[in-house]
Write a structure and sequence with these properties.
alpha+beta, disordered N terminus, globular, 324 residues, 5 helices
Amino acid sequence: MSKLAKLAGVASIAALLSACGGGSDSKLDTPNGNYIKPGDVSSTFIPFKDKDFLTKLKEKLGFSESLNVMDDRFNQALGHMIGETLGDGPITRTGRVIELTAQGTSAFTILRNSICTELTKSGTTQTIKLKSGNDSCATSFGKEVVTFKGGSISLTETLSSTTVEFNNALYTPWTDTSKLYLVTGKIVKDTVGSNGAIYSVKDPLKFQIVDKNNPSTTLEYMGLQDYEYRFFDEQLQSVSSKGTIVGQPKDANFSYAFNFSVTQPFEKEWWRIYPKASGKLEIIDEYNQKIVVEQTKDYSSSASVRFNSGVPTNVSWSDIVKKK
């Protein structure tokens, strides 16, 4: 499979189950097929719970037999996808779909660089691409450097929605010039009320970090399908999300697939860090293993986490959302 795996067609968790079991029906591909399998994690596995430094050090030095690579991989996969699940809501990371929408829209601001990019319009849709003879260009001064070379970004705006479509858009975010992203897919942002928004991805969206010296090599990958993220920024913020997500964490040699749904929205006052009780997230991997994250106490810094039919364990939000 090509490192720049193509996303096409319609995927579901059932298709992912079939594909991971050796079938060929999956339309959400990953850079490699080395998925985390049932039974690979230990009997003491706790989702999102990272090992403390001393335990890691002992295992590195060979003074402990408790090392379980699959525990670490599973938690790394969960850490990779959780920011996309909840975005800014009760946690501190911004969902990548939100970032991509903002970055794509910024290319069309009044500060657009007309020296090396050309803009075309068709009805309510604008499309930007490099002028002939250019390999790279800062599309909007102070924002991000984009290298399209055959790619483009389109923006469609109405009174109530914004649609950003990437077509092999290759760019370096101004916030981290060491990274090079390749994005293909469409994101629709619908405004709700004065401060609310719903971000949705119907057809597959892929975004990946590639090697700046060799763009055909994927360092990190994520694909979304049938995705929806709702955020209502009022006095009481409410966040929910659902979708199918596959990915490969940065520099990892394994892949994962999850179907997730916030079955009860996470809510919090705008000035608080942690949500009120009742928020509930369910995650099911490609082998039908289930993880439940539930806020059981108002404003608690920890959530109740359960893996399959195991005993619920309190895990701090800092462990849940931090990058693994």
